[in-house]
Recover the amino acids of this structure.
C-alpha cells in the first residue's frame, strides 16, 4: 500500500506549490488572493465609475451644454450607476467576505475554492463589456441604471452589451453567494454557533440569502427586454400589447433588496469596527441580528415606493408607504446599538473609527431623507428630482463606501502586515467627508427647488448649488486617490503590524499573524 | 472532531470532518430558500414575467448541487483501530471507503514536522499512510504519542 494521494495536502503550507507571476492570480483558489483581487477590481471600477461621475458634474457645472452631448450624458449616468452598483460596491464587499469570513469563522478557505476563482474572473469581462459599450455605434445604454422600457427596447447594441454584462455580473453574484452561504453554514469552527458568529458573517449570510432570492428576478427582467428587442416578444413593449409598468415592478422587486445587498454588509463592517475602537463588546448583538434580518425581510415588500408616480391605487400607495416606514424601526435599533456601543467606551479615533462614525452620521441622514421620500404625497413632488439623487448617495456613498473604507483601514494591517499611514488616512477621511457633503448636501436643496435628475442642462436658478456640487465632486474624486497612496504605501512597507494591532479588536482573525499566512486554520480552532 | 475509546490495551479513534450543520438542518435551509425563490418566480410568472421561472430553477439547481457536493463530504471520517492482531485505518471520503491494515508489531509512527502543519505518518515496511487529517495540531501530536505507546506495548 502506498501513501494516500493527497492525504496530507491540507496539512502543510503549500504556498510553494503555487504558480508565480500572473498565473498565480489567474489560477488561484486561495480566498485571500481572491479577496485581494475583488478589492483591487472594485477600486479600479470605482475610479472608472468616478470618472463618469466627474464627466456628469463637469457638464452640470454651469447651465448649457459644455462637455458632452445629451445622449452621451445619459450614457454616463447609466454606466455610472451600473458600474458603481455592480462593479464597485458589490465586489468590494464580496472582497471583504472572501478575505475575512474564513478567518472569522476559523475555516481554511471558502467551501468551493475553484468556483470562487470563477466568480471573480467573470467580473472583468462584464466590466469590459459595460465600459466598451461607449465605443459601439449608438453608444452605451442610456436609459438609467434601472434599464426601463420602452427606452431599452429601442436602443442600439450598447443595450445588448449592458444586458449581457448584467447577466454575467448576476451569475458571479449568485456563485459568490452560494459559496458564502455554504461556507458560513458548514465550516464554522467547532463551538462557533450561529449566535456566536461575528456580526460581519451574519450580515453576509443575510445578504447572500437576499442575492439568491432576487437575482433570478433581475435576470428574468433583462432577458425579457432582450427577447422584446430581438425575438419578437412583447413583455414590456406597449406597441405589441406589453406592459412597461410590469418591468418597473419586476426591476424594483430586485432593486430595493439590492439597496440592502449593498448596505447590510456595510452594517457588518461597522459592527466590527465600532466595538474595537470603543473597547466594548457590541451592544445588543442578538437585536442586531434580528434587526438585520427584519430589514432584509421588509426589503421584499416595499419595492413600489419607487413607483408612486407611475400610478397605483390609493390602498397600494398607503400600503407601500407604511411598509417602507416600518424599515425605520429595525434600522433605528441598529443605529441605537452602535451609539450605545460607543456610550462610555474608551473611544479612540483612528481612521477606521472616523469612517465608521462618518458612516453612522451620514447614513442616518440618508435614512431620514428616505423616510421623507417614503411618504407618497411628498414623493410625488420629489420623485425624479435631485432630492432623490442626494438621498441615495447618502445611503450608497456615505453608507456603503465609508463603511468599505472603514473596513479597509481596519483590516489593512492584517492583509499587508504593515500599519498604514495614520496621518494620510485621517486626511483621506476629512477630505472625503467635507467634499462628500459639499457635493450631495446641496442636492437636497436642488431637489426641493424642483431640479429634475438625468438632465444635462438646467434653468439658471439652479446654477449656484450645481457649481458647489461640482466643485465638491471633483474634490471628493481627487481625495479618493489619497486612499490609493495609503494602500500602496502600506503594501510596500511601514511599521510592522502585530497579530492584533487594535487592542480592542476581538475575533479569530486577530489570532493569526499579520500578514495572514497563505493558509490559515487548516484544522479548525475550537471555540470555548 | 474525534471520539476516542480505549479498553484493555485496544485503542480506537474516529475523527470526522468539521461540519457545523447537520444534513437535516442544511436541507431545511435549502427547502426554505427553494420555496421562497420558487414562490417569487411563480408570482411573477402569474403576472406575465415568465422568464423569472427558469432563472430561479437554474439557481436553485446550482444551490442544490453545491449543498450535495458539500454534503457528500459531511460523512467523511477516519477511523484508527488497534488490537492485538491488526492496526486498521479506515478512510471514508465521499462515497469511497478505503481500509488499510498493518501488522502492529511492524508498524511505527512518525511525525514529520513539529508545530503548524505537522503530519502523523504510520509506516510499515515500504508502506505508509498519513493519519489525523481531521485533527488539530494538538490532536495530531497526542495521536502520535498515543499510537507510539500502544504499538510499543503490542511489540512486547
Amino acid at each position: 500500500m502506498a501513501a494516500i494521494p493527497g492525504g496530507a495536502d491540507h496539512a502543510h503550507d503549500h504556498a510553494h506549490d503555487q504558480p508565480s507571476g500572473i498565473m498565480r492570480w489567474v489560477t488561484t483558489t486561495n480566498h485571500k488572493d481572491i479577496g485581494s483581487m475583488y478589492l483591487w477590481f472594485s477600486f479600479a471600477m470605482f475610479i472608472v465609475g468616478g470618472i463618469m461621475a466627474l464627466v456628469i458634474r463637469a457638464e452640470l457645472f454651469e447651465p448649457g451644454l459644455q462637455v458632452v452631448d445629451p445622449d452621451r450624458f445619459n450614457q454616463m449616468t447609466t454606466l455610472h450607476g451600473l458600474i458603481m452598483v455592480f462593479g464597485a460596491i458589490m465586489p468590494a464587499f464580496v472582497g471583504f467576505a472572501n478575505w475575512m469570513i474564513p478567518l472569522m469563522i476559523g475555516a481554511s478557505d471558502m467551501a468551493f475554492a475553484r468556483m470562487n476563482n470563477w466568480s471573480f474572473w467573470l467580473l472583468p469581462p462584464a466590466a469590459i463589456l459595460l465600459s466598451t459599450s461607449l465605443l459601439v455605434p449608438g453608444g452605451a445604454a442610456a436609459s438609467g441604471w434601472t434599464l426601463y422600457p420602452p427606452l431599452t427596447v429601442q436602443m442600439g447594441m450598447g443595450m445588448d452589451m449592458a444586458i449581457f454584462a448584467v447577466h454575467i455580473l448576476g451569475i458571479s453574484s449568485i456563485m459568490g453567494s452560494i459559496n458564502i452561504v455554504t461556507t458560513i453554514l458548514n465550516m464554522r469552527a467547532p463551538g462557533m454557533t450561529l449566535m456566536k458568529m461575528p456580526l460581519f458573517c451574519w450580515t453576509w449570510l443575510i445578504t447572500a440569502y437576499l442575492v439568491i432570492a432576487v437575482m433570478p428576478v433581475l435576470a428574468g427582467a433583462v432577458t425579457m427586454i432582450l427577447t422584446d428587442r430581438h425575438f419578437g416578444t412583447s413583455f414590456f413593449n406597449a406597441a405589441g400589447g406589453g406592459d412597461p409598468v410590469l418591468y418597473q415592478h419586476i426591476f424594483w422587486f430586485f432593486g430595493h433588496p439590492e439597496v440592502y445587498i449593498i448596505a447590510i454588509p456595510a452594517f457588518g463592517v461597522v459592527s466590527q469596527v465600532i466595538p474595537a475602537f470603543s473597547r466594548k463588546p457590541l451592544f445588543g448583538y442578538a437585536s442586531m441580528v434580528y434587526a438585520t434580518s427584519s430589514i432584509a425581510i421588509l426589503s421584499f415588500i416595499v419595492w413600489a415606493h419607487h413607483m408612486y408616480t407611475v400610478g397605483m391605487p390609493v390602498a397600494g400607495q398607503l400600503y407601500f408607504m407604511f411598509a417602507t416606514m416600518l424599515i425605520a424601526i429595525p434600522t433605528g435599533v441598529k443605529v441605537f446599538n452602535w451609539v450605545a456601543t460607543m456610550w462610555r467606551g474608551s473611544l479612540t479615533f483612528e481612521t477606521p473609527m472616523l469612517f465608521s462614525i462618518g458612516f453612522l452620521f451620514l447614513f442616518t441622514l440618508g435614512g431620514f431623507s428616505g423616510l421623507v421620500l417614503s411618504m407618497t404625497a411628498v414623493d410625488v413632488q420629489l420623485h425624479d428630482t435631485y432630492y432623490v439623487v442626494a438621498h441615495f448617495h447618502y445611503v450608497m456613498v456615505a453608507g456603503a463606501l465609508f463603511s468599505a473604507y472603514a473596513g479597509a483601514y481596519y483590516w489593512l494591517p492584517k492583509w499587508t502586515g504593515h500599519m498604514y499611514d495614520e496621518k494620510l488616512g485621517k486626511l483621506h477621511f476629512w477630505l472625503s467627508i467635507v467634499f462628500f457633503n459639499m457635493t450631495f448636501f446641496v442636492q437636497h436643496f436642488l431637489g426641493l427647488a424642483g431640479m429634475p435628475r438625468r438632465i444635462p442642462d438646467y434653468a439658471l436658478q439652479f446654477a449656484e448649488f450645481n457649481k458647489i456640487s461640482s466643485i465638491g465632486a471633483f474634490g471628493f474624486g481627487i481625495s479618493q486617490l489619497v486612499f490609493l497612496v495609503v494602500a500602496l504605501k502600506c503594501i510596500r512597507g511601514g511599521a510592522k503590524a502585530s497579530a492584533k494591532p487594535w487592542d480592542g479588536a476581538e475575533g479569530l482573525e486577530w489570532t493569526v499573524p499579520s500578514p495572514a499566512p497563505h493558509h490559515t486554520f487548516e484544522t479548525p480552532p475550537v471555540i470555548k | 472532531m474525534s471520539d476516542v475509546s480505549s479498553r484493555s490495551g485496544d485503542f480506537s479513534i474516529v475523527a470526522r470532518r468539521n461540519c457545523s450543520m447537520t444534513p437535516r438542518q442544511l436541507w431545511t435551509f435549502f427547502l426554505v430558500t427553494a420555496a421562497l425563490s420558487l414562490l417569487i418566480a411563480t408570482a411573477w410568472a402569474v403576472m406575465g414575467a415568465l422568464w423569472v421561472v427558469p432563472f430561479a430553477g437554474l439557481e436553485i439547481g446550482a444551490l442544490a448541487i453545491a449543498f450535495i457536493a458539500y454534503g457528500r463530504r459531511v460523512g467523511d471520517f477516519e477511523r484508527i483501530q488497534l488490537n492485538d492482531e491488526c492496526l486498521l485505518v479506515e478512510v471514508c471520503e465521499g462515497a469511497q471507503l478505503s481500509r488499510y491494515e498493518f501488522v502492529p508489531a511492524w508498524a511505527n509512527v512518525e511525525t514529520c514536522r513539529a508545530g503548524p502543519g505537522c503530519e502523523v505518518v504510520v509506516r510499515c515496511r515500504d508502506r505508509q499512510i498519513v493519519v489525523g487529517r481531521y485533527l488539530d495540531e494538538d490532536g495530531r501530536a497526542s495521536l502520535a504519542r498515543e499510537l507510539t505507546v500502544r504499538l510499543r506495548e503490542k511489540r512486547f
